[in-house]
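Long-time lurker. I teach an intro course on protein structure, and each term I like to show students one example going from raw sequence to a predicted 3D structure in token notation. This year I'd like something fresh instead of my usual example. Would anyone be willing to generate the tokens for the chain below so I can use it in lecture? Attribution to the forum is fine with me.
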Amino acid sequence: MNKIAIVTDSTAYLPPELIAEYDIKVIPLAVFHSKVPEQAQALLKDAANALSLDETLMAELSPVIYTHVGPGTLEIAFRRGL
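-- Reply from a regular --
Happy to contribute to a lecture. Here you go:
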């Protein structure tokens, strides 16, 4: 039998009681960058403050992606976490 999960991103404004009651999986916000860690950190900080996020992630893009998009690229995503 398949397992069903309720999933939302970390920008949803759900009360902690609701998350606990329905075992909702909250996926954290992530910022990826290509050789601009200071800008990525600033973007992540601004997003976390504006959205009242407790958990966030930051990582550098892989060399393969970096080669195609070039330096200075910033990406905002949600990490899949089930």
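Some talking points for your students: Residues 7-78 form a domain with the Hypothetical Protein Tm841; Chain: A;domain 3 fold (CATH 3.30.1180.10). The two ends are 17 Å apart (CA to CA).
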